[in-house]
């Protein structure tokens, strides 16, 4: 009986047209998602974009305003949380304060009458290296230890679908790497489906098969980590996942091979296949590590984009690479990462330099970056105070 | 003493910061004085009275200090049915009050969180009966449930009650009265714990395959134990010593007399002060033992 209590393999998860409205606030707007069984899916996004809400909807702790949720092909939209083959590692841990660590971990096993819950719980605790604290109560543990207990409490059930809400956020780097490995091993061994929410883009990229970037309750783009990094579709993804240099200009040339825009009088080209839009104002981007710095103007070449001359305004050394900030009139400030193949920087502050990159490395975005701040809507006390002061100054001037 | 159950930490005298402990002592002084004057003195007097012997050739109600421990044997021998009845009624009233108050407190403290106005309104309604003397309220119930009352005549007309049956004067009436009078004492402590109940634990429970009933039994109840212990103590202790509801003037009858009624009669009517004192001490001792065992068994020391 015991073995059949555990999922033999992961289940796939399908979200169809999910919408979630709280009174006066739409947290999720038309979310469609397909996670194949046995895959490691990472959900990445800024704070407040609806990641936790998505997990709560899947776990059944929140009811969608519209849309359907399917787990393993079965529509579970109207089933109760305890009937779903899903476990959650909560962002707030939510360890039962009146139970010992061991009883916390054994809770799910006991509810399903799995044989030998105590030994299985000990085993799960050994996995997160906390078996020696099994008799303690949650309040007697540090934050990171509590987080590992939360992880053990969910994983011990071997659910077909495991939801992880920033499960490693409170751990130090070494422990985090170790837990990442453990998680990946468990996931691959049993072929479970993991839906992993994280702030840490490196974690998302190294662990996940598929990464989805979420923004304002919608998925902006999803795909393999490499594809997402090398070919972002929107300005948000380009800047949220790693850094990007973006140039916006009108399209001046559109052939079957390349689309070129005019950036401060200079032609910047992007391959047609890598451009989301081919007419009007188009934003072209390139990753900082793809750029090369030149002391002299490089020869013009149709396979290379060249910007310059500009002035180096900042050089910061970071071991493996050096980051240069180059101000180019009309094109803004450009970030360049350069590998430290030589001793010392290749340019210094105040130098006049040119920048070039392979046209193939450009990407064309579907939207134009908005200048507005991401959290402009926030009404924290500071910004309210600032607004008040401005209003007062304006009044006094009248 | 029973209130020791509510204190979260025992006072530990720290020897190191001298000045601090002196200030603490100074602040404790009024309380200590009050306890010595109004608790310890009467207690000593009560113990001494309970051991008194009747004055030789004296009048009724004249006693001398002695070590007449036979008083205890006599009162237990004479009144053991009343003692048993008291604790039986108190237990029944506590159980009924808990069964009534828990859902009420849960609704006010958890479900009504989204509507603060409704929450306050319901709390006011729970407390509202306190604005009227409980003697008056109990008398009102006597009227409402008397043989000629609408309730009883209707029940009889519907053949739900035998034509010659009564409600007032029966054990059921006394338990009803006790339950009614102590419901606020049960509801308020339950409310204060349930109000702070973190519903994320309940969500975690249901996420870990616990059905709503299992979540209630395994998570909600243990987490609300402090309120349950406080509420049951605040109901059980005064209910066991109550002498109003069971009195013949209110809801009781000849065979529903509780220990409180016996103590009252011995003090005020029979003028058998030693018997009354001995009964009081027995009542106190039994309650202490019951409460001690209960608090220990419910294992709430660390939750309190
Ligand atoms: N019960 C609720 N009522 C109203 N608004 C809510 C509720 N729960 C969440 N929200 C709002 O929905 C949005 C998404 O919240 P959510 O918790 O999903 O964010 P998140 O992406 O998990 O953020 P973080 O990374 O900070 O955990 C937030 O703006 C939040 O304020
Ligand atoms: Mg969250």
UniProtKB/TrEMBL annotation, chain A:
GO MF, any single term: ATP hydrolysis activity
InterPro entries on file: AAA+_ATPase, ABC_SmlMolc_Importer, ABC_transporter-like_ATP-bd, ABC_transporter-like_CS, Mo/tungstate-bd_C_term_dom, P-loop_NTPase, PotA-like, Transp-assoc_OB_typ2
Gene3D superfamilies: 2.40.50.100, P-loop containing nucleotide triphosphate hydrolases
Swiss-Prot/TrEMBL keywords: ATP-binding, Cell membrane, Membrane, Nucleotide-binding, Translocase, Transport
A Pfam family this chain is assigned to: ABC_tran
Keyword Nucleotide-binding appears in the UniProt entry: yes
Reactions mediated catalytically: ATP + H2O + polyamine-[polyamine-binding protein]Side 1 = ADP + phosphate + polyamineSide 2 + [polyamine-binding protein]Side 1
Highest taxon listed in the record's lineage: Bacteria
The protein's Enzyme Commission number: 7.6.2.11
Record domain ABC transporter: where: 13-241
One GO CC term, this protein: ATP-binding cassette (ABC) transporter complex
Membership in a protein family: Belongs to the ABC transporter superfamily. Spermidine/putrescine importer (TC 3.A.1.11.1) family.
PANTHER family on file: SPERMIDINE/PUTRESCINE IMPORT ATP-BINDING PROTEIN POTA, SPERMIDINE_PUTRESCINE IMPORT ATP-BINDING PROTEIN POTA
Function: Part of the ABC transporter complex PotABCD involved in spermidine/putrescine import. Responsible for energy coupling to the transport system.
Oligomeric and partner information: The complex is composed of two ATP-binding proteins (PotA), two transmembrane proteins (PotB and PotC) and a solute-binding protein (PotD).
Name by which UniProt lists this protein: Spermidine/putrescine import ATP-binding protein PotA
Origin species: Orlajensenia leifsoniae
Automatic annotation (TrEMBL), chain B:
Compartments in which it is found: Cell membrane
Residue ranges crossing the lipid bilayer per the database entry: 23-48, 87-109, 115-136, 219-241, 275-295
CDD domains cross-referenced by the UniProt entry: TM_PBP2
Annotated ABC transmembrane type-1 domain residues: 83-294
SUPFAM superfamilies associated with the record: MetI-like (SSF161098)
Single biological process term from Gene Ontology: transmembrane transport
Major location category of this protein: membrane
Stored InterPro entries: MetI-like, MetI-like_sf
Name this protein carries in UniProt: ABC transporter permease
Originating organism: Orlajensenia leifsoniae
Lineage per the UniProt record: Bacteria, Bacillati, Actinomycetota, Actinomycetes, Micrococcales
């Amino acid at each position: 009986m015991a073995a059949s209590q555990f999922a033999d393999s992961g289940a796939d998860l399908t979200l169809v047209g999910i919408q979630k409205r709280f009174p006066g606030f739409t947290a999720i707007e038309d979310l469609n998602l397909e996670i194949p069984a046995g895959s490691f899916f990472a959900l990445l996004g800024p704070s407040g974009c609806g990641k936790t809400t998505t997990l709560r909807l899947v776990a059944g702790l929140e009811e969608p305003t519209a849309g359907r949720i399917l787990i393993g092909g079965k529509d579970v939209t109207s089933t109760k949380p305890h009937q779903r083959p899903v476990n959650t590692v909560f962002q707030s841990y939510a360890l039962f304060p009146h139970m010992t660590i061991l009883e916390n971990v054994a809770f799910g096993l006991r509810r399903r009458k799995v044989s030998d819950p105590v030994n299985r719980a000990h085993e799960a605790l050994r996995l997160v290296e906390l078996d020696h604290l099994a008799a303690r109560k949650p309040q007697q543990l540090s934050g990171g230890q509590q987080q590992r207990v939360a992880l053990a409490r969910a994983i011990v059930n071997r659910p077909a679908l495991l939801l992880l809400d920033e499960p490693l956020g409170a751990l130090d780097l070494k422990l985090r790497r170790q837990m990442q490995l453990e998680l990946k091993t468990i996931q691959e061994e049993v072929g479970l489906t993991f839906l992993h929410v994280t702030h840490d883009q490196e974690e998302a990229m190294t662990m996940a098969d598929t990464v989805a970037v979420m923004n304002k309750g919608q998925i902006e783009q999803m795909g393999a980590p490499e594809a997402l990094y090398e070919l972002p579709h929107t300005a948000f993804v380009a800047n949220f996942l790693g850094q990007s240099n973006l140039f916006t200009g009108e399209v001046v040339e559109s052939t079957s091979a390349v689309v070129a825009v005019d950036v401060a009088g200079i032609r910047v080209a992007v391959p047609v296949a890598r451009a989301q839009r081919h007419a009007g104002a188009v934003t072209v981007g390139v990753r900082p590590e793809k750029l090369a710095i030149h002391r002299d103007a490089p020869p013009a070449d149709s396979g290379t984009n060249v910007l310059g001359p500009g002035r180096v305004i900042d050089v910061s050394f970071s071991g493996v690479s050096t980051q240069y900030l180059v101000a180019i009139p009309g094109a803004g400030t450009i970030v360049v990462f350069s590998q430290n193949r030589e001793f010392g920087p290749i340019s210094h502050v105040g130098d006049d330099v040119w920048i070039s990159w392979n046209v193939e490395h450009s990407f064309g975005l579907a939207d134009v970056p908005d200048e507005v701040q991401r959290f402009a809507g926030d009404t924290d006390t500071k910004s309210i105070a600032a607004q008040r002061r401005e209003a007062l100054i304006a009044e006094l001037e009248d | 003493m029973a209130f020791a159950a509510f204190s979260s930490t025992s006072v530990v005298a720290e020897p190191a910061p001298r000045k601090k402990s002196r200030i603490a002592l100074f602040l404790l002084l009024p309380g200590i004085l009050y306890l010595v004057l109004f608790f310890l003195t009467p207690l000593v007097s009560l113990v001494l009275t309970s051991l008194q012997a009747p004055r030789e050739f004296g009048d009724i109600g004249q006693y001398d200090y002695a070590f007449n421990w036979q008083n205890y044997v006599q009162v237990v021998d004479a009144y053991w049915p009343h003692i048993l009845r008291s604790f039986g009624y108190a237990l029944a009233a506590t159980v009924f009050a808990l069964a009534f108050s828990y859902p009420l407190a849960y609704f006010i403290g958890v479900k009504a969180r989204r509507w603060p106005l409704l929450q306050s309104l319901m709390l006011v309604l729970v407390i509202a009966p306190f604005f009227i003397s409980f003697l008056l309220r109990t008398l009102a119930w006597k009227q409402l449930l008397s043989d000629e009352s609408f309730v009883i005549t209707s029940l009889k007309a519907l053949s739900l009650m035998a034509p010659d049956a009564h409600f007032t004067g029966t054990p059921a009436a006394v338990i009803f009265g006790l339950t009614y009078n102590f419901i606020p004492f049960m509801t308020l402590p339950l409310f204060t714990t349930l109000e702070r109940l973190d519903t994320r634990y309940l969500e975690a429970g249901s996420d870990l395959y616990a059905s709503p009933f299992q979540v209630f039994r395994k998570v909600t109840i243990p987490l609300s134990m402090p309120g349950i212990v406080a509420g049951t103590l605040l109901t059980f202790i005064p209910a066991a010593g109550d002498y109003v509801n069971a009195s013949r003037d209110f809801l009781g009858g000849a065979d529903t007399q509780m220990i409180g009624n016996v103590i009252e009669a011995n003090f005020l009517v029979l003028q058998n002060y030693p018997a009354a004192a001995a009964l009081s001490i027995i009542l106190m001792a039994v309650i202490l033992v019951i409460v001690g065992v209960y608090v220990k068994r419910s294992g709430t020391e660390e939750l309190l």
